[in-house]
Amino acid sequence: MTGEGRYQGWTNWETWHTALLIDNERGIYDKKVELVKRKASLSEFKRGLKEAETLTKKFWKESSKDNPEGWGKKFDKVNWNEIYKNMIDEEY
């Protein structure tokens, strides 16, 4: 579904998977909470959570050839603005 529209309510598969990793990898999640609590800027947020995008890209490279949903054609851009907006609205 890459480049073809939305995925699970997110801009694309890459954005969805990156957001999923942020909330499911303990160290990355803890960093997210810290950034949200101190109301970090978008650029700080993106830099601080870049590991999630790196892990998403690694997973994509390892799995895209076998994926029946078709998100393996190319790695699309992660929409950090969407992730930031979604997470900055959370209260901790």
Structure, briefly:
The protein has 92 residues and is mainly alpha-helical. Helices cover 59% and strands 0% of the residues.
Question: Would you spell out the secondary-structure blueprint of this structure?
Answer:
Blueprint (H helix, E strand, L loop, with lengths): L12 H12 L1 H12 L4 H7 L1 H14 L16 H9 L4
- Which structural class should the secondary elements be placed in? mainly alpha
| Mean pLDDT over the residues | 86
Strand segment tally:
0
Portion of residues in helices? 55-70%
What value does the Rg take, in angstroms?
13 Å
Fraction in beta strands:
under 5%
Q: Regions with pLDDT < 50 over 5+ consecutive residues?
A: none
Sheet with most strands: none
Q: What global shape is seen? A: globular
Number of helices: 5
Please give the alpha-carbon distance between the first and last residues. 33 Å
Give the total of domains: 1
The sequence of SSEs as H and E is: HHHHH
Brief descriptors of the model:
single chain; 92 residues; mainly alpha; globular
Describe this structure in words.
- It is a single chain.
- The protein is mostly helical and 92 residues long.
- It has one domain (13-66, 75-88).
- Helices cover 59% and strands 0% of the residues.
- The chain has five helices and no strands.
- It has helices at 13-24, 26-37, 42-48, 50-63, 80-88.
- Helix 1 packs across helix 2 (26-37) and helix 1 (13-24) packs across helix 4.
- The longest helix is centred in the middle third of the chain and has 14 residues, at 50-63.
- The mean pLDDT is 86.
